[in-house]
Amino acid sequence: MCLIFGPPLQATSLSTPTQIGQTGLVNMPTARLAKEGTLRFGLSRFEPYRAFWSSLSLFPWLELGARYTAVSHTRGTNNLNFGNFKDKAFDAKLRLLEEGRYRPAFSVGTRDFLGTRVFAADFLVLNKRFGPVDVSLGRGRGRLDGGFGGLQYQPAWAPGFDLVYEYDATDYLNDRFATQSGAVKRKGEDTFAIGYRWGWLGARLNYQAGDYGFNAYVAIPLMKREFIPKLDEPPPFSHDTVRVDVTQWRHDPKYRTQLVAALERQGYRNVQVQLRDHQLDLGIAHRRISLVARAVGRAVRTVLLLGPRDIDSIRITYFTPTDLALVSYDFHDLPLLERFFAGQVTYGDLLKGLTVRYASPQTVRQLAAASLIETDQAQSPSRPFEQFQWVPNEEGHAISLHRESRALDRMRLIPFNAGIYFNDANGALRYETFALGTYTQQLGHGRFLKGGLRLRLLEDVSKVVDKSNSLLPHVRSDVGDYTRDGDFILDHLLLNQYLQLRPRVYARGSVGYYERMFAGLGGQVLYFSKDHPWAVDLSVDALQQRNTDGGLGLREYRTTTAIAAVHYRLQDQGLTFTLRGGRFLAKDLGLRYEIQRRFRSGVRIGAWYTVTNGRDITKPGSPDDPYNDKGIFVSVPLGSMLTRDTRAIARFAISPWTRDVGQMVKSPGDLYTIVEDPLLFDWSGRHLLSGFHE
User: Fold this and answer.
1) Exposed/middle/buried for residue 59 (C-beta within 10 Å: 0-12, 13-18, 19+)
2) 515 and 637 both lie in a single domain
3) CA distances from 336 to 259, 345, 350 (A)
4) Which of 63, 132, 171, 497 has the most C-beta neighbours closer than 10 Å?
């Protein structure tokens, strides 16, 4: 279940979007910005222009926008696949002065500042509010030709509504294709509108010189930690139990078995138990619970109810679903811990009886060895797999079939998946739908066999007819052939070995079919600093291109990629900068720059730009100005949008999908990605005790 509505906004909100998504009136910008973390998506039409747009208030003083505009009665340049002429554009607005008692707000901005600049404009604008009326006055150049301004009235007697008058200074006469599209008839100037906003949803109807237009949008508050409550989340373990002392626990294996079974019923996997004198050590992993402290809090409650009554300390070590130990929670004042769960003491008091530290390889080895011995003594049944279950709304899928073991083994069948390919020289929009079955088998500590089969359903990627004229090896631009030639394919089949070398030092080795285009042998090493906000990793892979039919065969093309990365975090601002450098898939050498912002909801939005010595002349690239790989990505934790917690993350990217320059192989298990969310590397207003009591 997903939430699409929120509570009605107060009438004081002035952050309404224009036809292209930038905060403003109808077509003209204002000095206002949407509230920090507001992500908007909208669809507008004001002939001859139709736009699908998005905007984001990245900071309180910076708003970014992206849009995709179609122009009626025109044709795409030299390509019938595009239909009407379409253009993508990026906009930005910077607020230099906030509004004061006597001082107006002041912002500067730009439109369509990258690429073809078909709709390029720059502007500066002032805003001052007088009661329910907001007055704006600005001046532009380029497509915004001259002075502009307007009034926005938000009546207190009609909450959610607003009325707008603007003077539109757009130079429609000199727009590209103005004669064919009919834009030459647009005079601009006096424009009127009425709008309404309720919760996340908004719409506006516009009128200008006999023509009507509309703008409909959704505004998502990314600084909100959760969009809906966890209505379907099971409560913590709270059964009445009879507890025994350490001596009885040690001599009767049934007590350990009861504890392990209770944890497994709550979704814990790879449970490891060790009783040392009067300390109980527990190792746990959880596929679903997103916060480490929440998983630890539920586990330690269970230990307090089912563990020996006379233990004086509990240590819980948290493992990822890839069997990497991250952190250990040492509780050395159990009466204080019990009073915390009873609501008698605060988090501040709890910290006096708790130590949190990065996990050490020694602790991991002790847990693994002791757990094996005690499991044998308990003679517990192996129960390799649960029964198959059809699960609705698991990890954002409408329905899926899964089966799990007590360890970290898993089978999954997802009947419907979709891939969207947006804006490429081969067409404005392509799609691919498929069913996917995956299998993961844990073969030992940190060792996993992973496989996946993909069945093609409906798609039109294979209808791409334009062949790439890239002079680089075709490492990605033959995607149409891979889709066309493989109805039922081996998506991946590989062996991964994860290792912890030292505290905060992890490694991975991989061999097999990484993805549907490449197979190989390689590995990665990651180190992250204890006291400073940075991490480094190195990935090296010897690769060979797979046949397009999705079978076991390989093509002649071989390469070795070596990519080093430095990650640096400004945690107070939620910013992470990443610099990658090395040898990419097409044997080109260069650097990839990445920046991302994480909001309190956990949503991350970022962009990348790659510069290499590979000269991609595919349009819009040319021998004198080769194309550089770039794109925008969004990462959405689905737990904030569902009624039950989940670790699942939906990832999207807008980038050219038939390019060969600056490309990387799909990682079999990127170590930085594995550890950054559990350890809260990217600030989201949380800490290592967030959710502990839930």
Assistant:
1) middle
2) yes
3) 22, 8, 7
4) 63
